[in-house]
Each structure stands twice: as C-alpha cells, then as structure tokens.
Design a protein that fits this description.
signal, D-Maltodextrin-Binding Protein, domain 2, alpha/beta, palmitate, Lipoprotein, membrane, globular, lipoprotein, disordered N terminus, six-stranded mixed sheet, about 270 residues
Amino acid sequence: MKKLLLTAILASIVALLAACGGSDEAEEGLLEDGKLKVGVTAGPHEEILEKVSELAEEEGLEIEIVSFSDYVMPNVSLSEGELDLNSFQTEPFFDHMNEERDLGLIKVADTVTFPMGIYSEKITDLSELEDGAQIALPGDPTNSGRALLLFEQAGLIKLEEGLGVNATVNDIVENPNNYEFIELDSAQIPRQLGEVDIAAINSNFAMDSGLSPKDDSIFIEQDSTFVNLIAVREENKDDEALKQFIEIYQSDEVKTFVEESFSGSVVPGW
C-alpha cells in the first residue's frame, strides 16, 4: 500500500513539473528566440516594416525582417516555422493559397491597400490601344482574377458575371478588340513592360521598379477592396508579442508614415 502511495506521489510531482515547464514554454511563444521574424515582399511592405521595427525597438520588441521577391515563399516559410508572421498579401490570395496548400495559417489584422494599376511604355491612354494588342497580367490565380477585373473596370473586356477574383482568361465573354492576354510572374512584369502594349502590375512591384501608381499608371483600380493582411500560424493567434506587433503596425505613427511616404499609392487599410 505504501509503495502504491509513493508511486502516486512521485507521478503527481512529475506531472506538476511537466506542467510548469509547459507553462514557461507557452509564455515564451513567438519570442522564444528573443525576436519576431517577419516575412515581407521587397518594396513598400519592407519599407513600412522598417518603420514598424523602429517603433517596436523603442518598446523593447526586436523584429528581424526577411524580404522575399515572390508571393509563394513567405507563406510556405511561415507554415514551416521559418517565420513568425508575414505581411505582404491580399485576403483573396491568402485564402486561395492557404486552402490549396493546407498551410494552417490565419489572418489576424489588416494592413495597407495597394491599388493595382495598368502601365505602358507605348501608349499614354487606353483609347490608343490597337486591335490585337498584347496585355500582360500576373499569372497566379487571385492576382490574375484581380487584373481581369481591372481590365473590365477599364472597359477593355467583359467577364462572366459573379466570378470575382476567381475569373480566368477563359472567362472573358467579350473581347471585341481581340486583345492577347499573356500571364507572367508578378515580380517580372515591370521588367517586361516594354515587350507588351500594356500590363497590370501590383503596386509593390511597380514601386520597387521605380514606377509611381499615382503618376505613371494610365488606369488605376477604383474603390479597391483588396486590403493586405498579417498572417500567422493558427497556434500563435493569441500570442502577446503578436498583439504588440499589430498595435504598433496600426498606430498613428505608421499611418502618418504611409501617407507621407507613398502619396496615395499605398493607403492605410485599418
């Protein structure tokens, strides 16, 4: 009987110690290595995060910025634990990739909006487009659909109704001027702008290549609902460091920085 009682007491002590250890680990959370590792795409997202990092440092929060040149790896890296969070994408793109790849990520906050624009090195007005003109657009699913909605908004085509960002070039129901649509990697489109007649370019890549969405686009998205977001792994959604990061990002200081730095080409979306 004494032996059984002693065994039970020892088991209780082990369980208590394990629980205490687990609590310490949970408290460390995303700051287990002392800093937040945040993924962004190069350009405005990175510039904004540099401002956030500067403000965070004043509050004792260290941020390591990891910059990417594409839209796929920031989510893959986050899902695999190489990042603590990321800030670079619109919700339709996030939803599509998260579901398609079963990444286990969730949205936790809104950030900024980048209106998509139409650019050209050959014409200054869409009325100058000739029959059969070549039109470049992003090749990834949601940005492709977004670009097609932009072309429809500009009066170039008509799409099958009700598809929204899920539209593809196969869903064009009216193309009276026989435009040729060429899907390219989003980041490469600015470099290939001279090889087509017009192109839809995401503002972060446009600005990264020296183009101003406000001044250089010949048509720009109207009343965009494509707000960018902050994403994390689901298990970290209540992390205290994450809450601190969001509070800093959505502060008046960052809002002023965005408005003064990008002159309407990037708009606070929170």
